[in-house]
Amino acid sequence: MSKTIFVLNGPNLNMLGKREPGIYGGKTLADIEAECIAAGAELGLTIDFRQSNHEGTLVDWLHEAADKAAGVAFNAGAYTHTSVALHDAIRAISPIPVIEVHISNVHAREEFRHKSMIAPAVKGVICGFGPHSYILALQALKTITQ
Ligand code: CA2
Residue 59 C-alpha to ligand 1 middle, in angstroms? Predict the structure, then answer.
């Protein structure tokens, strides 16, 4: 039976493709969702793709993943750098693996993006490959949940 993977996206990612194409590229979040669903079909994974601008909603979805998902690919957006609540939620759903995903290479950007509050709680981190970061995370989740 196909495993379900939650792909969760945090604040402002709904603006992808509409602003700042120099940093994040021209694809919209809907384009990335379609690519994740296609890659998931190849990998035998069912993709549940969501976005919220609200920290508590992201916490709720992580909790939901504990019952419904084999793993989570998580682009927490700017909450990556600030959120103890998301760190705690990722720990709370252990051993469900969560992979931190970023489109940009956060380490090559402003210093405030170098610190991730969630990195100590996740299984691994993928950043800097543009929208392909999501596909790499799905491949990793396929491998580690086998
Ligand atoms: O590189 C990533 O994927 C980030 O998670 C994106 C976040 C940023 O705060 C992280 O440091 C790195 C920002 C997403 C906001 O996306 C926008 C898209 C278009 C226009 C403005 C923001």
Answer: 19
